[in-house]
Design a protein that fits this description.
Number of helices: 9
Helix content: 40-55%
Strand content: 15-25%
Shape: rod-shaped
Radius of gyration: 53 Å
Number of strands: 14
Largest sheet: 7 strands, antiparallel
Amino acid sequence: MRRIFGSVRSRATLGATLVVAVALVAAGAAVLLSLRSNLMEQAGNEAQRTAQNVVAQLAAGKPYDQLDLDDESPVQVVDADGTLVAASDELERISGTATDAVKPQPQSGGTGTGAGTDDDDDDADDSGRGEAGEIGEGTEFSDGSATIDGESADYRFAAVPVEAGDRGRLTVYAGGSLDAEQSAVNTALTVMLIGFPLLLGVVAGVTWLVTRRALRPVEGIRGEMAAITASEDLARRVPVPGTHDEVARLALTTNETLAALQTSVERQRRFVADASHELRSPIASLRTQLEVGVAHPELLDLDGAVEDTVRLQGLAADLLLLARLDAGERPGDARFDLGALAREQAEGRAEVTVEARSAQVAGSRGQVGRVLTNLLDNAARHARSAVTLSVRREGEWVVAAVADDGDGVAEADRERIFERFVRLDEARSRDDGGAGLGLAIARDVAVRHGGTLTVGRAPAGGALFELRLPQAQ
């Protein structure tokens, strides 16, 4: 069960079906209530019309036994004391009105019965008629049931009052049949009970098919990613559907991620290969010197051994710093004076001219100092006679510039020199040229401090490196 409802398609189908079910139940209840209300109102209006017809006769002074009562609907005429004075001929039982009596009670003195003797015709005429009256206001409604000619049914009763002259205040109760209301409600309920499950089945089926079609590209992406994981072939890419929707954008983003991952892995592999290549030369040189020293102590070149050891130490430090940068080490937020740091890094370099103003930046003082050291070392290797180091402020930025009077950097190589283990001076010896990590480290540190490192042409014709860092707030 958990596996079934663990899929997006199952949850989407279940969710859509539940939403539609709730909507259908709410709509069905509203329809039934509205239908019942309308039919009840119609039954009430029918009962009121029947009652008003009798009221009009009573108001005109018509005797009880001569009233024209509807034999198909229950009708009662009740006086102020609650006594039934007239009713439908076929009425056998009634409930929901002021009285459940179905047979009129005889009136004293013959009033209202319409009966008399042959010796007193004038009294007979006067006894059942009474004076004309007025129709009262304020119809009230109630629900009940009645049996007419052996058939029982539910009714909506309307109670209409009338002032019937000398007969006092009377109330006419007339019923409107609720058979139509009950039949219509039952029919609608039956249709809903049959139709709603069928409609829910259609909704569930359509949702299942639509989600399967919509998620088919996702399954393709998942399958391809599983294959890439199993084969470790980062050159493969997931299929991109031509739907131009969220799934297509997901596939594009996945391919971009795979491309970035492939680039990162290839870069790491090249880094390991280049690092191994760079370490091999000083290690081999140091080993040769030590082996010669063991065999012939008088021929041991201590200065060369120390130089190779220092070179190994520097290369190891560069590799360690690159590894920390690649691991996402945060530079920190300590404030320091870049101008003072520049003067400190230029100290002891006779060929360097410093023009550094005080400017506060935030980050790792050691890493930024390493950038300045690498830039000064690079400039010293390529300069003919002079190197200039300046620090200035430009708006929200602090710019440290290192310029030399050498041959400069060709425009085509101005981005390539920031790649790891790239050296443009391959003709020179490794001892003079370095490992090709200094500028790569410098740019990585600049980027992680929220700045940039670029190279251009210096006024003296050489290379101009500009380190831009945001000014500390």
